[in-house]
Amino acid sequence: MRSKKSISIGTAIISISLVFISLVTNAGTYYVSNDGNDSNSGNSPQNAWATIERVNSQPFQPGDKILFNRGGSWYGQLIPVSGSPSGHVTYGAYGSGSKPLLHQSVELGNAGDWVKTGSNTWSSVNTLPYDVGSIIFNDGQSFGSKKWSQGGLSSQGDFYYDTSDNKAKVYSASNPAVYYSKVRLALTKHIIEEQNRNYIIYENLALKYTGAHAIRGGNTHHIIVRGCDIAYIGGGRHGSGQNRYGNGVEFWGEAHDNLVENCKIWEVYDAAVTNQSTTSCTQENIIYKNNIIWDCEYSFEFFNYPASSTTKNIQFINNTCLGAGYGWGHSQRPDPSGRHV
């Protein structure tokens, strides 16, 4: 049995500095709370909005801040608004308590959420809109094992997403909601989709429970991810085959002047942080620093091809990385490798 190792990585390819200058006037602050109402103005905690959908509908301006109430939880995909050289648009937190949770998951913790379909097989009663990437039992004490057909269900916790009826099928000795105290199904849709976005800050958010990526986008620049908790990511079907995927923070294709710092990232199917591309592009001035990463298949993954692509000034510095290959997805992968870089 391998011993669990930890490393502190401080590799700088070329030292650079990123200077973000905000020259903003008339910037607004907007509030989002589970106790809010989407018909409110959103301009104070007492008049907070309620949903991500309301946030996504607002045409924010450079320098604006959108703050989610600590201790709250929101299901859905955040589609951010770009800022400009005059100021970032910030998505962050207010209040006290745990970081606000943005997720792509459903909890099926009531016995009535499941119906028995065989001797040890159970089906979700309700349909699910997306593939199930993983099932998190009892807040991460154990995880389901994804199978590709109902016939593959043979051990406690095995599950299958049945596209014929869009329901989850689970192997369990008794009703899953009885066998486990908590059952959370991570659905395969990104938590934040930032395609073609720029000048955005994500700060002090909890991004958890998705079968896809936590933060994903191509053609990005001047993105800052700071002080976020990112966990229980990935495992969803990628394409029509049996490949699975899911990264914590992914910068795809054209990307420059992006920063990920002071985050905690754990239990990710693929890479905690990555910049990658399979089409000719330029990736430059991307920094990952002072993050704590554990139990991901890869702490940092990078590729950029074909040969016509340009890569320069990528830094992975002062990150503490532990237990690569010890995450929930390692034993379920067709290519288990487990490495930090």
TrEMBL record:
Name the UniProt record assigns to this protein: Right handed beta helix domain-containing protein
